[in-house]
Amino acid sequence: MDSARLIYAASESSADLYYATRFFAPDPFLYLRTSTGTSHIVVTALEIDRAKRTARVDQVHEWNDLKQRWLADHPEQTPTTITLTLRFLQEQNITDITTPAEFPVLMADQLRQAGITLTPLPDPFWPERATKSVEEIAQIAVAVAVTGMGMEAGIELIRQATIGENDMLMLEDVPLTSERVRAEIHARLVRDGAAPHHTIVAGGTQSADPHETGHGILYAHQPIILDIFPRMENNGYWGDMTRTVCKGTPPDRLAAMWQAVADAQEVAFGMIRDQASGGAIHQAVTDSLTRAGFATGLDESGRQSGFFHGTGHGLGLEIHEAPRIGGKDQRLVKGHVVTVEPGLYYPDLGGVRLEDVVVVEEEECRIGTRFPKFLEV
Q: For residues 218 and 169, what is the distance between their CA atoms, to the nearest angstrom?
């Protein structure tokens, strides 16, 4: 008897499955890797020829072939996907499988009822995903460069705007909105082969909420956070970048916040290297912001203020993946690709966040983001 790893998912939404197969498909298919390393996928007739050409697996099978073999033995029964999965495992002499934590519950229950030992693994299912190959680093670099093109398009609209009545930003005689800037960013990303996802263009006090996408008219003399994280259509790798800008004259407090965040980011850059402690980096960033006079805690209304999220996260086939740079200590190793994104948020003023992507190397980190950082536009 043999044991194996089993995934049933759509690779367009499952990074683990795409990582294993390098095959994009919008509908679920079956992946099996035996303990000897032999890999299989089972796909529909719609995908069989493309899978044979492009999937990085040893064997490609078709569901209909399994179905015909099943019907030859059980002519009076119509098999389900779960029935055919069990048949496939039996044909491969598999009785013991491990699955990702998000494996379908109904399929897991029925496989267990049929005598298969099934053990879900907590994330990460493929721990090796965290350490990127030279090829992967190059693909992420392209994604980050494309992200920068989107950032340039968005900031250029803000730069072109004039300051109108009540400090509204005006462009072509109409108020400039978060929605218009976001649309311009998305258009540029799509032209460059990337799919945008929930791009943030949050102005004024909206920017005090780190995940507020932003809406409505943008105003002068206030922070505008632009956080762009597209996924490349051709290979599934993500870019990620954040800038905070201000059209007009930033208030002294905003300028001080921006500089404190930029300085804290440099602290992190100076500490990131092979075997560095993510927890220690996060604490140093927090300390840097506190020394600059920006405390973290609840404001008078009970809202979070200051720096209350992690310093960074892994980037690759998922926008957030291992490792993390935050309160829970994780060790960085050579080949990790991580973001560095300190921020400050105060509900009465707004927020400042700066985010760049770096590659962890032996003695230092290599900054992969080339787009400049500036506050005033």
A: 6
